[in-house]
Amino acid sequence: MNTATKLGAFTLGLAAVFGGAVGVGNLTGPVGSTAEASSGGHGGDHGTTKNGKSGKSGKHGADTPTPVPGGLQVSQDGYTLTPATTTVRPGEKTDFRFTVTGRDGKPVTDYQPLHGKKLHLIVARRDLSGFQHLHPVEAGGGVWSIPLTLPTAGTYRFFTDIKPAGAAQQLTLGTDVVAPGNYEPAALPKAEQVAKVDGYEVKLNGILTPGRTSKLTLSVSKDGEPVTDLQPYLEAYGHLVALRDRDLAYLHVHPDGEPGDGKTSPGPDITFYAEVPSTGAYRLYLDFQHAGKVRTAEFTALAGDAQAPQAPAEDEPAEQPVGHDADGHTH
Ligand SMILES: [Cu+2]
Q1: Do the beta carbons of residue 83 and residue 178 sit within 8 Å?
Q2: How far is it, in rounded angstroms, from Cα 179 to Cα 86?
Q3: Tens digit of pLDDT for each residue in 81-100?
Q4: Beta carbons of 233 and 259 less than 8 angstroms apart
Q5: pTM listed for this prediction
Q6: Which is the most buried residue in 219, 243, 247, 265, by most CB within 10 A?
């Protein structure tokens, strides 16, 4: 069939384009161990974040080897993200289709749901604008389908958060998709602790410290009043994705606590534990649901040397990265 031929061709094309990057990934250490240590999960797998301590490849020289963050590889642990097309016309809605192929080369059809979905698709332009969090549907035979519009020209990064049945851990695979045309890359917005969206104001407290678990608190208010009736969205009061500036390394962190656990309130605060792999700038995207609608608040945050401005006075005294406890989850 045409489709099969097409997919085959794309596999080859992607292999050629991304060969270099994949090679680098392989050189950094056993794929299994790096992936296991990655904190870029969509939440399902707790207990995999013994990050800074887990490296053992010895190929990085004297420094502690750093696990490879999620989203940088199109292929990992034998699973490969294969879009049916890597070009999408800007501004036009298309039926975007892709497969994830497994070790046997066939499309994966059996997934373990993560936060209520078998597959989460995150899209962002490479300048960190145009964030979308989508949930494609299964079109049969392991093919995923989603109506998609890339609003403006540019190169976009597509991430799939998945846990194929039988895979050792969940994976974030990434591929580029181009919307051809001239475009001006947007400058990264400066680091700010308040983001506004749709009449909501979200305040970010906490500091990202590379290699350590950092507590982040996001407080949602509307018209100056704290929002205390956030609605569960995908089994949480908030979902936070962090993308590293320039290479779009991907971290998906989840809140501390979940709806219905008897101790997590529906706002105004949503607490996350995040671990960023390095210093530098990150773009944070918080999805939250209120009054029946999901909105995304975006922040630029600086980790490490280039730290964010001091937290305001009302921040908790021990806002510094809370040492993480034994189970080391990424919530
Ligand atoms: Cu999702």
Answers
A1: no
A2: 9
A3: 999 999 999 999 999 999 99
A4: no
A5: 0.75
A6: 243
Residue 49, in any domain of the structure = yes
- Domain hosting residue 268, numbered range: 194-303
pLDDT score, position 230: 96
Q: Is 15 helix (H, G, I), strand (E, B) or coil?
A: helix
* Nearest Cα residue to 71 out of 158, 147, 197: 158
* Domains held by the chain: number: 2
Cβ atoms of 141 and 44 closer than 8 Å: no
**CATH number of the domain to which 151 belongs:** 2.60.40.1930
Strand segments, DSSP code E, in the chain are 75-76, 79-83, 94-101, 119-125, 132-134, 137-140, 143-148, 154-162, 171-179, 194-197, 200-205, 213-222, 225-226, 239-244, 250-253, 269-275, 280-290, 293-303
Q: Are 26 and 175 found together in one domain? A: yes
Does any domain span residue 309?
no
Distance 246 CA to ligand 1 centre (A): 23
d(CA 137, CA 35): 26
Q: Which has more pLDDT, 49 or 297?
A: 297
- DSSP conformation letters of 208-249: --TTSEEEEEEEEEETTEE----B-BTTBS-EEEEEETTT--
Shared domain check, 141 and 15: yes
Task: Report the percent of the chain where pLDDT is more than 70.
Answer: 72
134 Cα–ligand 1 center, Å: 6
Find the 155 Cα to ligand 1 centroid distance in Å: 21
Residue 326 scores a pLDDT above 50? no
Neighbouring C-beta atoms of residue 177, cutoff 10 Å: 20
